[in-house]
Fold this protein.
Amino acid sequence: MYSTCLFCHSDLGENSELEMFPVGRRLAFDAAKGRLWVVCRRCERWNLTPVEERWEAIEECERRFRGTTLRVSTDNIGLARLTSGLELVRVGPALRPELAAWRYGDQFGRRRRKHLLYTGAGVAVGGAFLIAGPVTGIIAGGSWGLFNLANTAYSMYEERRVRARLKIPGHEVPVVLRRKHLARARLIPGVGPDEPWLLRVAYARVSTPELITRPSPMHTPKPRDESVETELKGSDALQAAGLILPQINDRGAPRGAVARAVKELEAHADPTRVFSDAARRFDRSDERGQSLETLPVEMRLALEMASHEDTERRALEGELALLEAAWRQAEEIASIADDLLTPSSDEQWIAENRERRAEGAGPGEG
């Protein structure tokens, strides 16, 4: 197999996923027609591989494509990214995207361990103050007072710390969200199919009060931190949820909660419909919408998963239009090349292997 692009002569790169075909960082394959391409990452041209090197690699690509959870498909083409960075482009009927718990289990588990570690460290520091006070000549009450002072300072810092910056329609620069604003984020049922759910968010609006008299050069007025609210919908609401929910779920979750969240997500063909379902299920009649912070933990986790799925899916779908156009052009070239350059003996061998695959046998089995 050649290792440079046939069009721009750039290095096609290597991969560690496919032992029988280590060339390329993006591979395109059509299992039905028995074709395999290496896509050049510089010029994006599709390099058709020799016939004798395709079959085992195609089968392995198909297996890896079905095994990964990060994939997106249209009617004719699918794109998947493996953990090593290898990208697979699958030409043919689309597969239904699936979600595996392992993808999120490590993420939420790491947050939980971090939270427990910080909580344990805080308790240890408090105990150290009480023990070290008498030993060092500081009375216990005084050391406890110092601990309370430090704890109060830390709490104030946590309240003032910027948790997220959102791009709000009508604002040129992202707005700031702090802890108190996260508590006011609410999920609201929509009024129709075009607007199934809304997200109400609060954010800081910093303004400087106007002074009637000219201020002293030694005195500068401090800006006043005001909070305002707005309601977001569609992609704006999803993007905001994707930034807010990780902050609300910063304590992580045990595996049982993650498993229940995955079941919530798998119950919907479109992961983003979890938001509209949650908005209806947890709507409160006494006030508009439901606070994200007070939702059950598995629902909060499912909403965060759904927002990430949507973000990643959009990133993948952004390449599908270009990939499909390239595939159609490459398909024409491949069809001509295979017809002209493939000997009749190879055509018979391909037909026999294709029949074996249809019967469930491997290409090397007799």
In short: The CA atoms of residues 72 and 315 lie 10 Å apart. Residues 297-341 form the longest helix (45 residues). Residues 96-102, 136-141, 207-221, 361-366 have pLDDT under 50 and may be disordered. Residues 26-99+319-359 form one domain.
